[in-house]
Amino acid sequence: MVNIRYAKDNFELGENQSVLDCLTGRGVPVPFSCRSGVCQTCLMRATGGTPPESSQNGLKDTLKLQNYFLACICHPDTDLEVALPDDKDIQTVIPATVKSLKLLNSEIMHVVLECHVPIDYRAGQFINLFRDQSLGRSYSLASVPHEDDHLHLHVRRLPQGRVSGWIHEDLRPGQTVEIRGPGGDCFYTPGNTEQGLALIGTGSGLAPLYGIIRDALSQGHTGPIRLFHGSRDHNGLYLTGELHDLVKQYPNFDYVPCLSDRDVKHNFAVGRAHDVAFRHIPNLKNWRVFLCGHPEMVKIAKKNAFMAGASMKDIYTDAFNVSLPD
Amino acid sequence: MSQQQSLYEKLGGEAAVNAAVDIFYRKVLSDDRISSFFEGVDMETQAAKQKSFLTMAFGGPHNYSGLDMRRGHAHLVERGLNDSHVDAVIEDLAATLRELNVSEDLIGQVATIAESTRNDVLGR
Predict the structure, then answer these.
(1) How big is chain A by its Cα radius of gyration, in Å?
(2) ipTM value greater than 0.90
(3) By the CB < 8 Å criterion, does A221 face chain B?
(4) Using the beta-carbon criterion (under 8 Å), do A40 and B68 form an inter-chain contact?
(5) H-type helices in chain B, by residue range?
(6) Which residues of A are less than 8 Å from B55 in CB distance?
(7) Whole-angstrom Cα distance, residue A2 to residue A109?
(8) A40 touching B, CB under 8 A?
(9) Averaged pLDDT in 10-residue chunks for chain B of 124 residues
């Protein structure tokens, strides 16, 4: 007898019954459409137990690694604890101590956090950092597990930002904060090591990309890894020394800082990061593409990357949507 | 007991759908006759929908009803979706299959299945 656990309720799975039928039959509002494992509407996540491989058919690698599955074609032999993708209680609150705070440029703070309990994350995912119980914001992880001891965030100060302003002005080393996470599916997956990686980021969108690049390099990625980091002017660029060091260390890594202001000094590409990137790599067939930062850039670049030949399953995005002050 | 190969099997099943979906979606997005209907939609969700559609048109497993087709396209019909747009989609579908070297006979069968959804898609 196999049991499906959802939000503290235990349901017995009938013979030949799918997880979707089991849950919807008991009134759990799981959205669904095709019921044949194609449309991905009934996407769920196993928070306990491992879903059968066949129930992950067609999912992005980053989702498979996080135990996502399609409920309509899921017939497990063992118990599963499941959640809907947007269920908040997928993640528990974790306390973390602020180890250090350092400005990376005039508006981006490097925040180092030590979690009180270890968290299992992948470079490029994000966590939510809470100022108080109801006020939290998402920040991407620039650190790499096994390479860095702690979590690294790049927090850009936003005008009237209630969390970013607090981080920049009030937060002090030694203080304890609460975080939730990790989340997100913009990260490096092992395998296909000779594939080209194109990474395009604006502003603090460099955070996840810096993590993803170092993760790929440490896992022995051999294909070309090309980073395009965009900013309006010179002041917005950061970690340039570290990135130039990586270029010297790894022949397959290449860093192109892009400035969209017109009067740029030499050594910089002129134009918006995604325009520069598509000029450098006009054909993205078989490339893996990572897009992080300004939501408009991510949206445009996603379409451009797809039209330039990248497969939809090879495009990973993290749009930094700004929460408006309420 | 002899079993005839289904259209879906002849085309190559799920692997064929996977090979076709990106090509088809690119054609649709760059087709000026219909691309405006796809503006502002989430590309990931849309790609999954395209995959469902191709699976159905290839004669594969699906549970779509005429009612689903009507519901799914009603907001587009309000925006002026008509026969010429359905023609464009079916043309793009055939062009996709030609690019994948599928025989004209099988392309015809796929087009017939796609054609059978026309009245539901257009809410008639």
Answers:
(1) 21
(2) no
(3) no
(4) no
(5) 7-11, 13-29, 43-57, 66-78, 83-99, 104-115, 118-121
(6) 34, 36, 38
(7) 49
(8) yes
(9) 79 93 95 93 88 92 82 92 96 97 96 94 93
